[in-house]
Amino acid sequence: MTIDMSMPGSSGLLNAVGKRDMKFFSNRYVLALTGAAGIGGFLFGYDTGVISGALLYIRDEFPAVRDNYFLQETIVSMALVGAMLGAAGGGWINDAYGRKKSTLLADLMFALGSLVMCAAGGPYILILGRLLVGLGVGIASVTAPVYIAEAAPSEIRGGLVSTNVLMITGGQFFSYLINLGFTEVPGTWRWMLGVAAVPAIVQFVLMLFLPESPRWLYWKDEKAQAIAVLEKIYDSDRLEEEVELLASSSMHEFQSDNSARYLDVFKSKELRLAFFAGAGLQAFQQFTGINTVMYYSPTIVQMAGFTSNKLALLLSLIVAAMNAAGTIVGIYLIDRCGRRRLALTSLCGVVISLVILAMAFILQSSSSLCMAAANGTCQGVLGWFAVAGLALYIAFFSPGMGPVPWAVNSEIYPEAYRGMCGGMSATVNWISNLIVAQTFLSIVGLVGTGLTFLIIAGIGVLAFIFVALYVPETKGLSFEQVEQLWKERAWGSRGNRQSLLGATP
Q1: How deeply is 384 buried, as exposed, middle or buried, from its count of CB atoms within 10 A (0-12, 13-18, 19+)?
Q2: If DSSP codes are grouped into helix, strand and coil, which group holds residue 341?
Q3: Which chain regions cross the lipid bilayer (predicted)?
């Protein structure tokens, strides 16, 4: 069988495959791989979300933390420093040693860091534990989406990768549930931080029995093992097409002598365009405020006038539940509406909800408007208005800008650079995340909560413009077709005249 994608508009494989599109729930083996890999996403979500509630009790136990905003921000953001380092190294580890070994390494970091935090006798040991779990988070943030994407049929790849985002949001929801459940238990925050060792151990055991990514195996010349995995995913006719395209793609990369180097990402125009789109999405995901909301939602709720720790955690639990529910909507829509349209719609709602949230805090800080109200009624109404703004923000963010950056970054890079570029873009995500987490409370203290959220809304407008201009639609495309898309964007008609597989027209 010959697969020719050298002509403009050619879609040989896609047309052949489109006649028998695989449905989301039609292959239990793919779902099992997705679920097992997604435990890394769950740990990602849990370890980044649990600190929001634990911080309330850490402040009570350690006087040095209570009145020190910088130390509070460091406890929160040290996991992000670890994640940044883990993502930077995780891309190389993925390409050199495979997705499976990378996952096992992440699990070891998760378990060790959780136990260190649980036993911490002071804030600085706690910070060390946060660094360790952050390394696990960083590696997992690179590995899980790539592992899932490389095992997924193209027509449901977006939904399956978004399932990992559902696990992230589910982990955040579960962390709030654990936070609420341990409020009356001695050693409150130690239990909150320590239980993350359990799912890490579970995933470690499961991964020992699961295969390596078939694309990575084929790329490393383990063809028999790769085909054995693909046989469990596709029927015989589809398998032949997938293997032939994979073989042709691998031969092209071999012939072009692509031993992946970091500098190649900036020297190659098509790689540079792909990385710019992927890294830009990751940066804007953070600068539009999602982890400000998730890390500090109990603190934001208290800023809105609800001073009870327990009530703040309960309201934050509702916000986290909406985040997980919205991600389910995203899983349904991402392979139907497409990545680009979903992101643009999401950003419109994000900007509107951030303006509402900002106005609630601005009006609340204007004491003259509430002076005539008895017993703080005005303050209470505006407090609930702020909580409604948080909920609306999550409702718009979670189906679009939550899963889209991870789905796009799992599919826009060539095989030889997928781990490396995925790691680099995830590092951009974590650097952006770190900047936001480390500065949010300080900026609030400097300019006020309302103006801070207005600034984030302005960034949301910039994000909309970026997606509209630089992010192409990749819905339903094979990895090889996505690679050809970037060639055409980089070189125009010259890209059209070149075969994706390196053949001469």
Answers
A1: middle
A2: helix
A3: 29-58, 70-92, 104-125, 131-149, 161-182, 188-210, 273-296, 311-334, 341-363, 383-408, 428-447, 453-471
